[in-house]
Amino acid sequence: MEKSKLQVTLRNLLVTYILTGVLLVILALALYRFRLKEGQIRLGVNAVYIITCLFGGILMGKSIKQRRFFWGLLLGLLYFLVLFAVSFMLNRGINGSMNQILTTMAICAASGTAGGMLS
Questions:
Q1: CA-CA distance, 119 to 117, in Å (whole number)?
Q2: Staple 96 to which of 31, 35, 66, 100, CB 3.0 to 4.6 Å?
Q3: Is this structure's pTM higher than 0.90?
Q4: How far is C-alpha 89 from the geometric centre of its chain's CA atoms?
Q5: Which CA distances in Å does 90 have to 7, 80, 83, 87?
Q6: E strand or H helix at 3, and its extent?
Q7: CA pair distance 33, 55, nearest whole angstrom
Q8: Which residues fall within 8 angstroms of residue 118, CB to CB, at 6 or more apart?
Q9: How far apart are CA 112 and CA 61, in angstroms?
Q10: Could you say which DSSP state residue 92 is in?
Q11: What are phi and psi of 75, to 5 degrees?
């Protein structure tokens, strides 16, 4: 039985967030071990966004097999929206400047799209 596109998307989004958790633990260990500076941490977090959305886009492209760039883009945007919503709830408001938020959204969307095209 073939899974619906919604089921595939939710499964791939879950896998992407599991990968995010693993990579953030590695980043936290690097922070502890090497006493990273704020700029290095920000770079590391952006690298996590790029890697996970790229991987998620590849998963989406391989799962759906049509309009791969679109499904990669969709995964990247959904990843960002969940990230934004959780951050909004935990911080009880918007955390960061509009420029930072839009940059993060663009990173997630572009990485997901690239992953979809690479699949």
A1: 6
A2: 100
A3: yes
A4: 18
A5: 27, 15, 11, 5
A6: none
A7: 27
A8: 54, 57, 58, 61
A9: 10
A10: T
A11: -65, -45
Q: How many CB atoms lie within 10 A of CB 112?
A: 35
Taking residue 104's Cβ as centre, other Cβ atoms within 10 Å add up to 18
CB 102 within 8 A of CB 43: no
Reading the chain (119 residues) residue by residue, the pLDDT tens digits are: 567 999 999 999 999 999 999 999 999 998 889 888 888 989 999 999 999 999 999 999 999 989 999 999 999 999 999 999 999 999 888 887 899 999 999 999 999 999 999 98
Q: What's the length of the chain? A: 119
Place of tokens 């990273």: 36
